[in-house]
Amino acid sequence: MIGSQIALLALLVVFAVYIVRLRSTAMDRLTYLGLALVGVVLILNPEWTNIIAKWLGIGRGADLMFYFFIVFCLFHFATTAATLRRMQRDLATLAQQVALDDASAKSEGQRGG
Amino acid sequence: MKPEPQEGVTPDAIAATWVIVPAYRESAVIQPVVTALRRLGWKVVVVDDGSPDATSAAARRGGAEVVRLPINLGQGAALRTGFAYALAQPGTGFVVTFDADGQHDPEAVAALVAPLVSGAADVVLGSRFLRPEAPGEMPMRRRWLLRTATWVSRTTTGLPLTDTHNGMRAFTTAAIRRMQLSQDRMAHASEIQAEIARHGLRCVERPVRVHYTSYSLAKGQRSMDAISILWDLLLTPRRSRS
Question: What are the DSSP calls for B13-73, one per residue?
């Protein structure tokens, strides 16, 4: 196993733990902010990506960025899917409550004349 | 409306029963379905799953109570809404689910409720495969799809059922209260069985006849829908039990 494989696997494990255990809206925002800062630093110092890539055993800095991009996408998919699922569930509960309230209001109206 | 006498059920049992009919875009057929159920004395609540057509009005003309969902949520969510409605009505003891498209026989509702009234079961499921069938009654592709679905359900829940995706079911209110249902779309059929198995509810099957018409076949499940059902079952996490 080369350094890059160990590093990438470790990164995936960190993300899995993060998504299952540590997630909160504030932590998500901090994570996004941290990633953005890393992006700014690497734009200002493009040669650093090559140095880190060599150190990890990945050929070029561009490959390193590609791997990071994949992990970032996984993170983004996971947070988006969780949000959508929660919204779908809340929407169903809400729609059901509206429907039941409407029905009981109508039948009471009939009874009242 | 004076109900006609039916075998196996007393007028008290009929008065304690709500028949839930989930409906989406069924304005063309729902009125006679409701009328036939009402003529036998059953209380009917149609859950209109956000239909863009006149399903609600047609159901009311047939004599049903109507609960109209403001948006389309799927059959599982419509059934949950119907259960919530029935449980909120005073004196409800039994709940029956019934398809809106006219493929079920209103006369068969009594046979489904009878084992609940006698206390022999908590849940009664309709089965298409328990009675001798006229040749050509069920289309071949439909038969194999249902057989496969039944085998999958039997293997995963351990319930010895012969037909796992039949829309005709009857429950005691106690059974409904124990089941935790969360599937919005068609995967609720498998979910209901999983809940029956999890709570050890007493469950029997009763033969029901299904009238396949070109209308019901066009509206019913297609083979490819099995993929969507599996997707929902595998990817939708169970509602938290808080």
Answer: HHHTEEEEEEESS-TTTHHHHHHHHHHTT-EEEEEE-S-SSSHHHHHHHHT-EEEE-SS--
The residue of B49, B71, B183 whose CB has the most chain A CBs within 10 angstroms, and thus the best one to mutate to test that interface, is: B71
How much is the pTM? 0.76
Residues 6+ apart with CB under 8 A from B165: B146, B149, B150, B189, B221
Q: Count the domains in chain A.
A: 1
Sort out which chain B residues have CB atoms less than 8 A from A95's CB and list them.
Answer: 50, 69-71, 73, 77
pLDDT of residue A3: 66
What average pLDDT does the structure give for chain A? Answer: 81
**What are B67's strand-pairing partners?**
B47
Q: Which amino acid is at B58?
A: A
Question: What gap in Å lies between CA B27 and CA B118, rounded to an integer?
Answer: 36
Q: A99, B239: Cβ pair inside 8 Å?
A: no
Nearest to B85 among A91, A92, A103 (CB): A103
Of B81, B106, B53, the residue nearest B219 (C-alpha): B53
Instruction: Residue A88: list chain B partners with CB under 8 A.
Output: 184
Stretches in chain B below the pLDDT threshold 50: 238-242
Cβ-contact B70, A98 below 8 angstroms: yes
Q: Which domain holds residue A13?
A: 3-112
Weakest mean pLDDT among A22-36, A64-78, B109-123, B173-187: A22-36
For B67, the closest of A85, A89, A103 (CB atoms) is: A103
The C-alpha atoms of residue B203 and residue B161 are separated, in whole angstroms, by: 9
For residues B130 and B205, the answer to whether their CB atoms sit within 8 Å is: yes
Q: pLDDT digits over B153-197, tens only?
A: 777 777 888 887 788 999 999 999 999 888 877 778 888 888 898
**Domains detected in chain B:** 11-233 (3.90.550.10)
Partners of B88 in beta bridges: none
Best residue in A80, A97, A100, A108 for a mutation probing chain B (most B CBs within 10 Å): A100
**Chain-chain contact of A99 with B88 (C-beta, under 8 angstroms):** no
